Amino acid sequence: MDVTSDNLQELKHRLEDATVKCSERCLYQSAKWAAEMLDSLPPSDHEDTDPESPMEMSDIAPTSINPYLQIQDPVEAALEAQEAHKYLLAKSYFDTREYDRCAAVFLPPTTPPVPLSLTSPNSKPKHSRSSLKGKDKASPFQGSKGHVQRNPYPRLSQKSLFLALYSKYLAGEKRKNEETEMVLGPADGGMAVNRELPDLARGLEGWLSERSSKGLEDRGHGWLEYLYAVVLLKGRNEELAKKWLLKSVHQNPFHWGAWQELNDLLASTEDLKQIVDHLPQNIMTLIFHVYCSQELYQATEDTYQALSELESIFPTSAFLKTQRALLYYHSKEFEEASTIFTEILATSPHRLDSLDHYSNILYVMNERPRLAFVAQIATATDKFRPETCCVVGNYYSLKSEHEKAVMYFRRALTLDRNFLSAWTLMGHEYIEMKNTHTAIESYRRAVDVNRKDYRAWYGLGQAYEVLDMSFYALFYYQRAAALRPYDPKMWQAVGSCYAKMGRVEQSIQALKRALVAGSYTADDVAQSASPGAGARKVLDPETLHQIATLYERLGDDEEAAAYMELTLQQETGGAPVQEENSDEDEFSSASENAAHSDAEGEHSGDEDTDNMPRSRRQKPRTSSFAMQNDDSTAGETWHQPTATTSKARLWLAQYALRNEDLDRADQLASELCQDGMEVEEAKAIMRDVRARREDAG
Amino acid sequence: MARYLTPWRISLLCLITVYTDGVVPNSSAIHVLSFLTAGLFPLDPADKQWEKHYLPGIEELEETLSHHESSIPGRTLWDLFLKKIWSLDSLDALEELMNDVLPSLLSKTREQLIHDRDNGIDPEEEGMRLSRSSPLGVFIRRACLEYTRLQFHDSVRLWTGFVKYRLPTYHMWARRNPSDEQSPVDVNLAMNGLDTNSYLSQVVYGNFEEEAQEEGTVSVKDAERLVEFQVGELQRLGGRVPDEMRAQLKHIMTSESSVPVLMYYLEYLDAWRAGDYTSAFDNLHRYFDYTMHSNVDRSAYQFALLNLAIIQADFECFSEAISAVQEAVAIARESHDMNCLNFCMSWLYHFGKAFPEQMREVQNSGMLGNEKEGLAFLKAKSKETDMWSLLSTTLVSEAKLEMQQGESLASIIECFVRASHVNMTKSLSTSTGTHMQLQSIMYARIGATHLSWLDTEVFRECYAEGSPYDDFVRITFRNCQILAQKGNYKESFSRMNKVEPERLRAFRYNNSWTYYSGLLQLRRQICRDDKVAVEHILSQLRAVQLLEFDMRLLLAFHTIEFTIRQGDYGRALRMVEQAAHSMQPENFDVHSQIKLLCLKARILEKSGHPQRGFSLAMRAASIAHRSKILFDLWESICTLAAVLLSLREFEAAVELVESIMPQILESEDFALIARAYSLLVDANMGIAGELWSTLGRESLPARKEYVSRALGYIDSAYDSYEEIEDLLGQTEMMAKKATVMHLTGDPVLANDYAAKYLDLRRRRGAEV
């Protein structure tokens, strides 16, 4: 994207305008975001010529006057001027967190007729932070359906009306919080309701329909539309919410909160593709696109390219850097991700946003000292931020102090009920503590907060697998696999689930998919890894062995033998047979290791925490599988003869014996003896071979 | 304030790991271990360097360790220790130390051993393992437990504190280990290529250049240790909190939210000693209120009541005190708390001795039985419950009681010996003071003044350091009293003044010290016949409200003595009667009784009715003889001799006095000696006079002999009077001498002595 200095200047003005307007409306998070972006723009030439008096400069230079700061709409301007004092009063009430009082400044309590509450007054409370991101169930009202609402509000400027309604909304949220029970306590059903919502929805609907009937539909500023969308979202009316959000981002593109809400609405890349055409064409859309892709785990070239473009415009933006790091994280390039986060920390150590992701990365990399240090940094800034609590929780989790970890995740959730990663991580901890039922609840909450969190889906699957409820587990694994189609681990889980349910063919299919996915990420070449073509590729021996055993179960010995051979071929270096594969060493990658370590569900934990994003020791699963390998460290030494390959070799030897291929059997058995694995069995085979030869001879 | 873990405790843990690494040679092990234990155990007052061992800084560690070679050649223990503390390069390393390294130093529990055996893990035999219940093991376990309890931000604070704590040693360590040089703060900073001045480091660790804040160096535990130590000292010595310590404690109290509750007890003790009734009361109640939660079963209620009783009594709210202690006794009985019951009984006994009139009610209720029964009860019970100091005090009390009632000397001494045995075998230093004091009094009563003197000296030499200030002041007085008897006023005053003001900071001790010094002064001024001074001192002493009966009596004796010297016999007689009335059966003392009898006899003698004093003197002598109070016996015999003189029984008087003269001399009381000599003078002159009247001129040689004997005695008496600066006695002697000279017909010498007499009179006048 080519950015001229005029464009840049305009961008600056727009961001400045957005910051001012957001903070005027007390949308602090969006204001912060806009201000950060503004700050990360490169300074234009004529502004830093006189650093001592930038104010005077802007007074003198007419170009510096921000054209967007003036109110465009004369009607609104008049109204705002009229209400200036009242607005100040309301704003100060808002700032002192007296939301009801703030709302009452503009909306006298008599104005809206008391609505018949549609929600049960006894409904269970649920916590949410003041950011407008939470989604609750149990708001049964349905927005525009039914009769048309009248506008219940007095004639106010949009700014004041927004502030009043927003504070009303927050007052409802606050009361909801006050009713909230302890996190995952006995009375914590997650069924809390903001009781202001029906009222707000009706009122806003009335207001907006009045506007449209007056033909003023296009002259909205986007704020009230946004608020209406948020209210609708709380009522689970997502389609309508999406519509209003789109309207809002058209009218007010620099309001990041609206984009974020929109992002939360998109469950998949298809949704994103659908919506792209309806989006305005500006830089915010680009940022949104990058953000969305990141959230949807689309670590593709396009995303990287778009991100690079953006970074050329906003060279120092920590937000964009974080997005890049997260993209690296999704594509499992942990080192790079970690480096970026380290840089961000060094330049702005007080920034806590996304530090929880950084801690996840360090967790996966098993970098305990660094994780401790990050936790230390976060604690030094604010120990009562959900991010901090997550980092600390992760640290304790890495130290296997699960009770403490849970305590910190709980704290994070007490601070913010909608803090996604805390729910998921807490689920992991409960799995560790063998409290499967709580784990399931925890994961379920995570999924309720954000349906795009594959880790939570996967966790749910695991939990059900532990409980021997394969059917459920399968469902959840499939959801996870749908979110991460190129993650072999998901497919392996699906495959093993099928295997347990006795649906062997489907299991084989799933495992083959895992093979494909594993090799795909390894080689970056989209190529089907059929058994024949696999000679040039590194495949996961565990999965191969698993497929082979499944074929054996089907009675298809030839296929089984073929896969066993393939398993054996993955072994290089130590084994003399597979010289032709020795050049494949460099293709070994973290994901490969990860894939195989999970394949049989027998992993000893340590090896897969090295490699898998947030995968945990899954000791509970050990008992749930018929096929058991010993706890060898197959992951680290996959090119050496491992337990899996030895098993394959043993199987092949026995197979050869059955097929009277005595030489081959003897050779394989002697290899086994050399490797020092399955020695007893191998010796038995060799004795058998000798006996038969003597018989023959 | 941290609960327990502080940077210096971490460094001690590091030192323990150095120790368990086995690199500490046997010769140094004892130093290392004693340093460790000094830091871990409650503060020991016997430790002269306790300030150093309380919160040891890194400098103390260096001082201790750098002199000791380790088993690794060329490295001192200090080097190894430095290496250890600098191997903790990040918060994670600290976590690892606390969670993995330290528990592995402990010997395995039974469960662990069984677990290992079941899982086929062979017991490994490498390294030294600490027993779980050894002091070091307990310390490690406590530290680990406390660390587990820490929240993350607390462990961060601990880590930051530790970083600052060890920072001064960075250069030392870096010089010795140039190969593995790292950032002086955190390896994570170094990895990012940041130094301590970077923004990130400032955020995480704050500013290192700033004056190191004291935050986090003191834990609640340390504060408790300090307060416990102070309370112990206060209770043991009965002093007050020194000023510097007060400032320190105040700092602790104001800076931290979690003040140890014992602090209020300390404040109470301090206020009590300072004589500040209101705040003592206030603080005591505050302490009770704060300890209530740990006292759900009222197990400390009786002790609280006892404390209340003591403080009430100290501030002379006797009825309150008695009701409190009665309640305490009732509760203690109810809850079978023998310890408290014994303390209560003991206190009640002493209280009854001191304030018999307050105790009437209790006595009448028959709760206590008589004194003997009370003591027998206490003796039996204290032996039963192993309360040795109570046993010792009870034995001494028994001795005192028997002494006062004039009972068998043998049983008194037996009591003393038994008390002394208990003191020695159970190494009780606090009760030695009372024991020594009473023993010294006992010796004085049987006339063995040198032994009495010896006792006080032994105490001053050997026990003065660790004994209660109360006893110290008393014994010093006793010591000075003996000095004053010998006429060594100067020394006695200087000794009295040498008592450190530190020991007199408690109001009560200061009071008694003033009183004692006043008494000594009074005695001297009475001797010097300085009326103005005496009256001045008397008025001052009367203003001091001292609670001890025998001391009040002593003042009464001195006053009577003074009144007699003034020649106001009627008043003196009334005062004697008054003193006799003030004696109750509970505080009855044979010594005082004899003394009063003697005084009365003397007054009668002086007022010209010597014969009326005869029966009194006889009674005094017989009582003294019966109860073997020899010193008083000599005095009453002197009084008797004076009566005999007035009956013109000169021979008998001479015989009497001469027969006891060696013992009188032995008693080293120059007042008595002078008096005995002057009696001898009178008796001899009397004999000479009788000879003259019966035989006339023939008796000259014999008469001359008696006269010269009298002259000799006059000189001796004069010397003795001079010794104690008794002007009145001196003038009397001079007058007598002049008269004798005049009678023997030596006018020149008579004139001389008369001139001397006038001179003495003048001196007296001049001083008046």
TrEMBL record, chain A:
Q: Which GO terms describe its cellular component?
A: anaphase-promoting complex
- Example of a GO biological process term: positive regulation of mitotic metaphase/anaphase transition
Q: Which SUPFAM superfamilies match?
A: Cyclin-like, TPR-like
Instruction: Identify the stretches annotated as TPR repeats.
Output: 386-419, 420-453, 454-487, 488-521
Alphabetized, the UniProt keywords read:
Cell cycle, Cell division, Mitosis, Repeat, TPR repeat, Ubl conjugation pathway
Q: Does the keyword Glycoprotein apply?
A: no
One Pfam family, short name please?
TPR_8
Q: Does the keyword Repeat apply?
A: yes
Q: Locate the Cdc23 domain: which residues?
A: 10-325
Compositional bias ranges of the Basic and acidic residues kind: 595-606
Region spans: Disordered:
39-58, 110-152, 571-640
In terms of superkingdom, the source organism counts as Eukaryota
Gene3D superfamilies given for it? Tetratricopeptide repeat domain
UniProt feature, compositional bias: Polar residues = 621-640
Looking up InterPro entries in the UniProt record yields:
APC8 (IPR007192), Cyclin-like_sf (IPR036915), TPR-like_helical_dom_sf (IPR011990), TPR_rpt (IPR019734)
Its name, as the record gives it, is Cdc23 domain-containing protein
Q: Which source organism?
A: Penicillium steckii
What lineage is this protein's organism placed in?
Eukaryota, Fungi, Dikarya, Ascomycota, Pezizomycotina
Automatic annotation (TrEMBL), chain B:
Q: Which UniProt keywords apply?
A: Cell cycle, Cell division, Mitosis, Signal, Ubl conjugation pathway
From which residue to which does the signal peptide run? 1-22
Keyword Repeat attached: no
Keyword presence, Cell cycle: yes
Q: Which InterPro entries match?
A: Apc5, Apc5_dom, TPR-like_helical_dom_sf
Q: Name one Pfam family in it.
A: ANAPC5
- What positions does the domain Anaphase-promoting complex subunit occupy? 264-354
One GO biological process term: anaphase-promoting complex-dependent catabolic process
What domain of life is recorded for the organism?
A: Eukaryota
The record's similarity note reads: Belongs to the APC5 family.
| Function text | Component of the anaphase promoting complex/cyclosome (APC/C), a cell cycle-regulated E3 ubiquitin ligase that controls progression through mitosis and the G1 phase of the cell cycle. The APC/C complex acts by mediating ubiquitination and subsequent degradation of target proteins: it mainly mediates the formation of 'Lys-11'-linked polyubiquitin chains and, to a lower extent, the formation of 'Lys-48'- and 'Lys-63'-linked polyubiquitin chains. The APC/C complex catalyzes assembly of branched 'Lys-11'-/'Lys-48'-linked branched ubiquitin chains on target proteins.
Q: What is this protein called?
A: Anaphase-promoting complex subunit 5
